[in-house]
Amino acid sequence: MMSDVKVVTIDGPSGSGKGTLARRLANRLGFHLLDSGALYRLTALAAQKAGIALDAPEVAALAESLNVRFDADGAAYLDDVCVDDVLRTEQTGAMASQIAARPDVRTALLARQKAFAVAPGLIADGRDMGTVVFPDAPAKLFLDASAEIRANRRYKQLIERGLSANLSALVDEIRIRDDRDRNRAVAPLRPATDALVIDSSDIAIEAVEAQMLEYLRARGIC
């Protein structure tokens, strides 16, 4: 990581709001944005496209050679085809969670993630940004919320997009993913020891952003 690049990490479980807040902070500060979860989702989609099982050793090599890019609005492209809609589905998220537990895949994507740290700064959104990828980052945040709250948020998003959804099933899926992410042997989901932990369960997004900005100002980030 370049010494003159300000890196802010935002970790947390799925549905905690970290992606939305990472984009808001990146836009406000004029920083670059790393959606690390998208890289795992793209790897999973690439494996599916190639007919490779998620537990096959070839997945790690696939992660190293991904042909992916993001446009200015954050839309993801795999082999020059926009896959943003399928990328954000619960099914793709579950596949990504499976391969994210693999040490070889995490190693394959580590250098690619670190390369996002360029001037003037980076907002890195993920699950191990502050603990593994950028352990020396000057500002670390961990955003959490109850499984029920996160499932309800996801339910509303799906309904607004005209998709069918089952709230109780979403709660179960989130709990299963949380358990997998928090108990995996490599880079488990947990706050860095020096991270500011914010529970967004009962706090409006504007209030959470205000807390984050206050924290970043105190550290000379903005």
UniProtKB/TrEMBL annotation:
Stored SUPFAM superfamilies: P-loop containing nucleoside triphosphate hydrolases
Keywords, alphabetical: ATP-binding, Cytoplasm, Kinase, Nucleotide-binding, Transferase
Residue intervals of the Cytidylate kinase domain: 8-217
Single Gene Ontology MF annotation: dCMP kinase activity
Binding site for ATP: 12-20
An annotated GO cellular component: cytoplasm
Location relative to the cell: Cytoplasm
EC number: 2.7.4.25
Family under the similarity heading: Belongs to the cytidylate kinase family. Type 1 subfamily.
NCBIfam families documented for this protein: cmk (TIGR00017)
Protein name according to UniProt: Cytidylate kinase
Gene that specifies this protein: cmk
